UniProtKB/TrEMBL annotation:
Assembly mode: Homodimer.
Native organism: Mycolicibacter sinensis (strain JDM601)
Domain PurM-like C-terminal: from-to ranges: 167-252
GO molecular function, a single term: selenide, water dikinase activity
Keywords: ATP-binding, Kinase, Magnesium, Metal-binding, Nucleotide-binding, Selenium, Transferase
Cofactor binding description: Binds 1 Mg(2+) ion per monomer.
Similarity section: Belongs to the selenophosphate synthase 1 family. Class I subfamily.
Positions that bind ATP: K17, D44, G45, D46, D64, D87, G135, H136, S137
A Gene Ontology biological process term: selenocysteine biosynthetic process
One of the Pfam families matching this protein, by short name: AIRS_C
Record's protein name: Selenide, water dikinase
EC code: 2.7.9.3
Length: 325
């Protein structure tokens, strides 16, 4: 019998994420991140920190965890692990070690259920070739799971969110819309097998191809949605962008979930945050913008460059802001 997390799945992407504007206000001006060996720190809100160890070696560090996005404990573990590992891939790195981060309501949910979550996380980490060597757990009223991951990269080949220049194609390596399907799952119990497959798929292959192609700017699309993460890249790089709404790949069922009103609060906050920097073209509807702002979990890479086999969804331009056509 499959053990489930019914009643705890939150849906809507990383629904527990602090809204982007509030988060930036909270960390603005914090001291301690400056050091001559820090290649990437807090300044531009990149996917992971990068510290120079040798001229040919940078160490990457990241952590990510969240409440359940699906009812199946094993799948939640797989999704959370893929999501945490993605931050290393988004920097052009290779994960080398991970530790588990767990909050568990031990008086409410059986420990056997936590074992299933950890088993799912371990399965994806093994697929990535990344050993999991322990972790930390607390008694928590609400279940939470994720990983802190350490990776390595060539410091001369880092993928960063502040390295885009005008005139580059924008490539997206996974369809968007899983937040809408997760929110529908939360409210109706309807499971999207395609969404689970997408969220557990590693970004390893796309990251390797990007590094080999000489790409310098990338990020992954997660809780702030495609528009939010694109805005952060544009702002950090000092460029603008044009997005072709019709070229953006969308997972099956997401448009119908949007039509039926399964929009999470996180998605609406994403759109509210980025709206002052948007220029919607003729024919672009509010629903189009909500879809592009949909809060993703373990989404694809957004790459300032062209990769074989992945759709180009727009391009970078001089200036600032994001135009949606």
């Amino acid at each position: 019998m499959t053990i489930r997390l019914t009643g705890y799945a939150h849906g809507g992407g990383c629904a527990c994420k602090i809204p982007p504007g509030e988060l930036e206000d909270a960390v603005r001006g914090l001291a301690g991140q400056a050091h001559d060996r820090v290649l990437v720190g807090l300044d531009d809100g990149d996917d992971a920190a990068a510290v120079l160890v040798r001229d040919d070696l940078a160490v990457l560090s990241t952590a990510d965890f969240f409440t359940p996005v699906v009812d199946d404990a094993y799948d939640w573990g797989r999704i959370a692990a893929a999501n945490a590992l993605s931050d290393i891939y988004a920097m052009g790195g290779t994960p080398v070690v991970a530790i588990n981060l767990v909050g568990w309501p031990r008086e409410t949910l059986p420990m056997e259920l936590m074992t299933e979550v950890l088993r799912g996380g371990l399965a994806v980490a093994q697929q990535a070739g990344c050993p999991v060597i322990g972790g930390h757990s607390i008694d928590d009223p609400e279940p939470k799971y994720g990983m802190a991951v350490t990776g390595v990269a060539d410091p001369k080949k880092l993928l960063r969110n502040d390295s885009a220049v005008p005139g580059l194609p924008l490539t997206l390596t996974k369809p968007i819309g899983v937040g809408l399907l997760n929110n529908r799952h939360k409210r109706t119990g309807e499971v999207s097998v395609e969404a689970v497959e997408l969220m557990t798929r590693l970004n390893r292959g796309a990251a390797r191809e990007a590094v080999e192609a000489g790409v310098r700017a990338a990020t992954d699309v997660t809780g702030f949605g495609l528009l939010g993460h694109l805005h952060k890249m544009c702002r950090a790089s000092g460029v603008g962008a044009v997005i072709d709404r019709g070229a953006v790949p969308v997972i099956g069922g997401a448009v119908e979930a949007l039509r039926d009103g399964f929009v999470s609060g996180g998605t609406q906050r994403n759109l509210d945050w980025v709206r002052p920097h948007l220029r919607p073209g003729p024919g672009i509807t509010e629903d189009d913008l909500l879809l592009l702002a949909d809060a993703q979990t373990s989404g694809g890479l957004l790459i300032a460059g062209e990769l074989s086999g992945y759709p180009v969804i727009g391009h970078t331009v001089p200036g600032s802001g994001v135009e949606v056509r």
